[in-house]
């Protein structure tokens, strides 16, 4: 359902029926799909007799279907006003022509999708979600500096190579992935856990506008839905479902990123993980995934080759740090970077490794911080930032 200035009565009635199905307490996706299979359409469900409904489900389900949700009229008015506000938005229902084909193959496809952005399907749209190859990128909301750099640079490479990056617009890795894809000139899709009439987190308001300009923001939740904790793990099946594979950048052992990876594996999709320091809690989830069979990746090219799409020469040029061989790079590398290695180190440890006086060491660390080669961590630790 696109966004004309006024929907015909038939379309308005259909939208109302779908919203009613979505909003009815006690009617989950499984029950809704059974009802749709039995009666053919959402409006037809609410025209059935008690006996016909009872033949499909329990008495409780029958009673729920026959009771109109109190918020239905308000929700319908809000949705119609939202649709009328621009041609960059639509509502796609299960089985609708605009519904993303990839989601029809997952075990629990959403009943409705609210979509906002330049990839909204309409007559003049040449590039749509179904025409793009998508890759999910997920990870920690509190990544290490290196993890954030990896997310942005990998996504930039994928965007330059023609892939659409799908993530959840959360803080940390998600935001860096969306930003990187846009930097690479690619498309990106954000699957969010709120209604599309609000942006969460608020810090990503500008990012949300940029995503809408060159991609899509998608939600299965009706307008007005606040950022409820339970909604974020739920949207993960959509992130993995839209994508050919899922890349986990950094993840703790108990994290939503591992949920997304598990869902991707259950959907028969490739799972990729970037290894990290054995001392970093943010790497343990990735290490667990690798132990369980996820593909270890060290570069964006590893992912693209596995997905049978080699990195174009132009993209490789854009994302190569420099033209030096590793041996040449090592010869010109700062002695302090060599001493730092790739694990976090304290000032005392660096002094012991270099033998430099405190003033010289601090001056060199500051210079490397300003050049983006070193980051300062809580607890007086320093960590090296490598190009992905």
List keywords for this structure.
388 residues; alpha/beta; DNA polymerase, domain 1; Rossmann fold; Arc Repressor Mutant, subunit A; nine-stranded mixed β-sheet; three-stranded antiparallel β-sheet; 18 helices; 12 strands; elongated
Q: Radius of gyration, Cα only, in angstroms?
A: 24 Å
Please give the CATH class of the largest domain.
Alpha Beta
Total of domains? 3
Shape: elongated
Structural class: alpha/beta
Low-pLDDT segments: 310-332
Instruction: Please trace the helix and strand order, writing H or E for each element.
Output: HHHHHHEEEHEHEHEHEHEHEHHHHEHHEE
CATH topology of the largest domain: Rossmann fold
Provide the CATH architecture of the largest domain: 3-Layer(aba) Sandwich
Strand tally: 12
Largest sheet: 9 strands, mixed
Question: How are strands sequenced across the largest beta sheet?
Answer: 1-2-6-5-4-3-7-8-9
End-to-end C-alpha gap: 41 Å
How many helices? 18
Residue fraction in strands: 5-15%
């Amino acid at each position: 359902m696109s966004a004309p200035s006024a929907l015909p009565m038939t379309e308005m009635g259909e939208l109302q029926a779908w919203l009613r199905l979505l909003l009815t307490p006690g009617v989950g996706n499984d029950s809704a799909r059974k009802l749709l299979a039995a009666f053919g359409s959402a409006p037809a469900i609410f025209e059935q007799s008690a006996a016909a409904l009872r033949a499909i489900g329990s008495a409780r389900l029958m009673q729920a279907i026959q009771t109109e949700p109190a918020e239905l009229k308000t929700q319908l008015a809000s949705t119609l006003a939202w649709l009328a506000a621009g041609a960059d938005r639509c509502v796609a229902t299960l089985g609708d022509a605009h519904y993303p084909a990839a989601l029809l193959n997952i075990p629990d496809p959403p009943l409705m999708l609210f979509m906002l952005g330049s990839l909204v399907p309409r007559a003049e749209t040449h590039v749509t979600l179904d025409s793009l190859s998508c890759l999910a990128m997920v990870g920690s909301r509190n990544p290490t500096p290196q993890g954030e750099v990896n997310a942005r640079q990998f996504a930039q490479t994928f965007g330059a190579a023609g892939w659409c990056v799908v993530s959840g617009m959360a803080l940390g890795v998600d935001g860096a992935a969306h930003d990187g894809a846009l930097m690479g000139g690619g498309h990106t899709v954000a699957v969010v856990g709120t209604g599309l009439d609000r942006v969460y987190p608020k810090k990503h308001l500008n990012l949300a506008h940029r995503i809408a300009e060159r991609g899509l923001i998608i939600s299965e939740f009706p307008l007005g839905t606040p950022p409820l904790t339970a909604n974020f793990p739920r949207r993960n099946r959509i992130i993995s479902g839209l994508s050919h594979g899922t890349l986990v950048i950094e993840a703790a052992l108990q994290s939503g990123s591992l949920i997304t990876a598990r869902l991707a594996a259950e959907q028969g999709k490739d799972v990729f993980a970037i290894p990290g320091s054995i001392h970093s809690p943010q790497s343990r989830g990735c290490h667990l995934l690798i132990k369980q069979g996820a593909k270890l990746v060290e570069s964006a090219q590893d992912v693209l080759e596995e997905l049978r799409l080699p990195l174009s020469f132009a993209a490789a040029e854009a994302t190569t740090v420099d033209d030096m061989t590793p041996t040449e790079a090592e010869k010109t590398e700062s002695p302090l970077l060599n001493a730092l290695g790739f694990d976090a180190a304290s000032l005392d440890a660096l002094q012991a490794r270099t033998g430099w006086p405190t003033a010289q060491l601090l001056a060199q660390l500051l210079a490397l911080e300003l050049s983006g080669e070193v980051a300062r961590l809580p607890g007086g630790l320093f960590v090296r930032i490598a190009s992905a």
